[in-house]
Amino acid sequence: MSTLPEPLRTALELAATGLPVLPLRAGKAPFGNCPQCANNACGGRPNMKTAGPCRCPGVCHAWAAATTDPDVLTSPAWTAAWRRAVCVAYHPGAAGLTVVDLDDAAAVAWARATLPATRVVQTTRGEHWIYRGAMASHNAVRSGVDIKSTMAYARWLGPGAGAMTALPDAVRALAVKGPSPSRPAPRSISVPARSGGGQCPHRTPVFLERGIAMAEQRITAARSAIHATVYGTFLAVLSTHGRCGCLTDTHVARLFTAAQAKGETARHCMDAWNNASTTLGL
Fold first, then answer.
1. Of all helices (H) and strands (E), which one includes residue 78?
2. Rounded to whole angstroms, how far apart are CA atoms 160 and 36?
3. pLDDT tens across 217-258, in order?
């Protein structure tokens, strides 16, 4: 065990408790897909609803790579990734947990005044409040606050302090409230429809689905200029689909997930989406 990289030793300890884990590379981002899974060749992330459905040997598909299997965690491909890893992450939703990520002091103060007490983990700039129970993940539910649960990952920063309590309705309600003006959350695009009586001009969902899949592939395949690629892709999607009202939260989340798997932060995704919308006058 002493020859294993430190992140892997921590990961094995966590996995033994039932917490699905994965390595994060420099930039605190997941490792990119292996060649066998590039461009969603294996079926890909958009179809993944739980952790680990892809059986490739690589550390693929961001949050969906998380596993508790020690044989997988210590396999050659994973061990190589652990040697390059800077920290350990976990998939909260797969463990039946929800992390309320408080990004700054103002968000922490808000949580202390608003949310039920639970286990607290200190972060670089704020705190993670961890509740027992899973829900859909949402970014920027208010200024400085993200919810990480299903189809998301959180950094492991220690066990924290305090008793973990059940996921309260107050946290679930955050996902349906309007976003803060300073950090809007992904949403369906609601703008004046093009001529045609408000009918979507795409006639069939196949055209939209193909466009979203191609956009995901373009982001996933990028090897450089990631920021520019993400912005250009968002711009292309919005220019085609932004005025007919056919984009949904699910479509936007797929694009953001692809971008974050390439190392973009949730905030960068928001900025790129908003800048593209402004450029197009949406």
1. helix 76-84
2. 38
3. 888 888 777 878 888 888 888 888 777 777 777 888 888 888
DSSP state of 263: T
Give the whole-angstrom CA distance, residue 135 versus residue 96. 9
Q: How far is CA 63 from CA 9, 56, 263, in A?
A: 19, 15, 13
Identity (one letter) of the amino acid at 98?
T
Dist CA 39 CA 217 (whole Å): 5
Q: Do residues 147 and 100 make contact, with C-beta atoms less than 8 angstroms apart?
A: yes
Q: From CA 135, how far away is CA 95, in angstroms rounded?
A: 11
> CB–CB of 243/193 below 8 Å?
yes
Cβ atoms of 61 and 48 within 8 Å: the answer is yes
Q: Which residues pair with 87 in a beta bridge?
A: 24
Which residue ranges in the chain fall short of pLDDT 70? 1-2, 38-55, 177-204, 282
Residue 26's SS3 state is coil
pLDDT tens, position by position, 129-147: 999 999 988 888 888 999 9
Count of Cβ atoms closer than 10 Å to residue 102 Cβ: 24
